[in-house]
Amino acid sequence: MADDKTMEASPGLTAALPLVKASYTSAGTTYDSPAMGPNDAKVKVIVYSDFQCPVCRRAVEPLKALVRAAGDVQVIWRNHPLAMHDRAEPAARAAMAAFRQGKFWEMHDRIFESRALGDADLRAHAQGAGLDMARYDKDLADPTLAAQIAAESAQADALDAQGTPAFFVNGDKTVGWGSRLGLQYQIDQARTAAGDKTAEQATQAKDASAAKVIFGR
Predict the structure, then answer these.
(1) How many separate helices (H) and strands (E) can be counted in the chain?
(2) How far is 184 from 26, CA to CA, in rounded Å?
(3) Which residues of 168-182 are buried (b: 16+ CB within 10 A; e: fewer)?
(4) Is residue 133 part of a domain?
């Protein structure tokens, strides 16, 4: 495994992990979120992220490494394009369109690796990821994608996680990126606290109000 400094500087350094769908319901609407790691994981790390955020970029490879290192951790992506970043929302829509073709993590890596977020750039990333471009264009224009992105940003705001990246490790919040070892420590603590319970049960028992927003239950 590459050292932490190299990982933080090199999004896309390793291949994308297998894509998993993690569903949740919010305000009566069910959404699918891109995830990596098993859906029955004991520890669930929800990350609210922004494709134009330079700090979010640093977390790309460390998150993969954390999932690869354990069989009981799932990382779930939620979109939180900040208002100050004018290309973050278009990039989020492009990535979620790729998600519909099973290529979210490949698109995610290409966007963060290149940092090129113009419309033509995003289209080139989609082509490079091997997407069906006719379907991509159709999905990109689908208002339900924009609605999901807006709903997830509202979740982050409701949880007082306006900055990115924001992490919820079985419900425990950390805003900003410290280090892979720091997040590993949180994961280890959450694993211990969870015991034989599922991650969702542990979160609900600890903070029911936050769990309702995060998990949409």
Answers:
(1) 11, 6
(2) 29
(3) bbbbbbbbebeebee
(4) yes
The beta strands (E) that lie in 132-201 are given as 166-169, 172-175
* Segment 54-76, tens digit of pLDDT: 999 999 999 999 999 999 999 99
* CA–CA gap between residue 105 and residue 17 (Å, rounded): 7
Pairing assessment for the beta strands 20-26 and 43-49 based on DSSP bridges: unpaired
57: domain CATH number? Answer: 3.40.30.10
Number of domains, the chain: 1
C-alpha 154/C-alpha 78 separation (Å) is: 11
**Cα atoms found within 13 Å of the Cα of residue 24, Cβ hemisphere only:** 23
Helix (H, G, I), strand (E, B) or coil at 183: helix
Starting at the edge strand found earlier in the chain, the sheet holding 172-175 runs: 20-26, 29-36, 73-79, 43-49, 166-169, 172-175
Contact 24, 143 (CB under 8 A): no
The total of other beta-carbon atoms located within 10 Å of residue 217's CB is: 13
Judged by DSSP in three states, 215 sits in: helix
Rounded CA separation 50/78 (Å): 9
Q: Note the pTM of the prediction, 2 decimals.
A: 0.89
Residue 119 lies in a domain: yes
Measured CA to CA, the distance from residue 57 to residue 9 in angstroms comes to 8
The crossing angle, in degrees rounded to 10, of helices 143-158 and 88-99 is 120
Model confidence over 4-27: pLDDT tens digits? Answer: 999 999 999 999 999 999 999 988
